[in-house]
Amino acid sequence: MFDISTEHKKKINAVINFIQQNPQEELSLAQLAGIANYSPFHFQKIFKQVTGESPKQFIIKVRMINVAHYLLTHTHKSITEIALDNGFASSSTFARSFRNFFGISAEELRNIPSKDHTTITKYLKHIKINGNFFVNDNNGREKDLSIEIKKAQSLKVIFVNAPLTDIGEIHKSFKRVIQFAEARDLLTVNTQFVGIVNPHAGIYQAGITLQAHQEIPKGIDILNIDGGKFAVCGITGDTKQIFHTFHSLYEWLHQSPYRIKQPFAFEILPQSPLTNPYENMERAIHIPFEPV
C-alpha cells in the first residue's frame, strides 16, 4: 500500500482541480498522469489511494454531478445540450451512464418538483457527494434574504482544497494558503480572503486573491474567476448555512429573470480567518447568473 504523503496529495489535488475545471474535455489517463508527473500506472494507484476512486470513476462523478446541477437549474436547455456540454459524446451514451449512476433517468430527475428535491438524496447514497445540496428545507427562507445584484471584477485566486463539511479542515486550508503567501510576500492591503464553494461536489477551496502585477507562484493551485453579475447576500455560520443560502438564492433566481451561470460560487471574507473564526464572520456569498 502506498504511503499517502503530503506530496502525493498535493499532486493529486492538482489533477482534481484540473478535472473540475475541464470536465467537458476529453481527459486521457496520460494527460492526467502528466499533470501529476507520474507514470500512468503509478498515477492510477496513487489517485485511488488518495480519493478512493479511479480517475475514470472520478471524472464520471464530476460530470454527472454537473449534469444533475444543470438539469435542475438550467431548465431552458435540453437534456441533450447539457449532456454534450459536459463531456458526453452522444445522448445514448449519456442516458445509459446517467441511469447507471443515479438509478433513474435524466428526464425523471428533471421532472421532480423543486419542493420535492429531498427525494433526490435517496439516489445519492452510493455516491461520495453531499446530498444536502439537493435538499430544499428553507421553508420560505428566501423571503428573508437580503439579496443584491452586483457586478464583480475577475479574480485570480491561489487556494488549497478542503472538504466542504469540515470546518477544521477549512481553517487548516486557509492557514496553509496564508502562510504560503506570507512566505512569498504576496499579502497586501488589497488581498481578499476568498472561499470557492462547490456544494454538490462537497469541496471548499480556501484562497486569497493575487493582484494583476503579482507573479503567479509555483507550488500551489490557482483559479481565475470570471467577472460579471452576481446575486450576493450575507451569510454567517458553518457550512450548513451555505447549503441553506444556496437553496434560498436558487429559489429567488427561479422567480427572477435570471438563471444560474456556473455550478459553483464564491464568498468574500471580511478579514483573515486566522484572526477571526470562519463561522463567526459575515461573509458575502456570490452566485454568478445571467439573463434568461
UniProtKB/TrEMBL annotation:
Give a yes or no for keyword Transmembrane helix in this entry: no
Q: Which UniProt keywords apply?
A: DNA-binding, Transcription, Transcription regulation
Question: Out of the domains of life, which is the source?
Answer: Bacteria
Residue span(s) of domain HTH araC/xylS-type = 13-112
Which molecular-function annotations from GO does this UniProt entry contain? DNA binding
Pfam families referenced in this protein's UniProt entry, alphabetically = GyrI-like (PF06445), HTH_18 (PF12833)
Q: What is this protein called?
A: Helix-turn-helix domain-containing protein
What is the organism of origin for this protein? Elizabethkingia miricola (Chryseobacterium miricola)
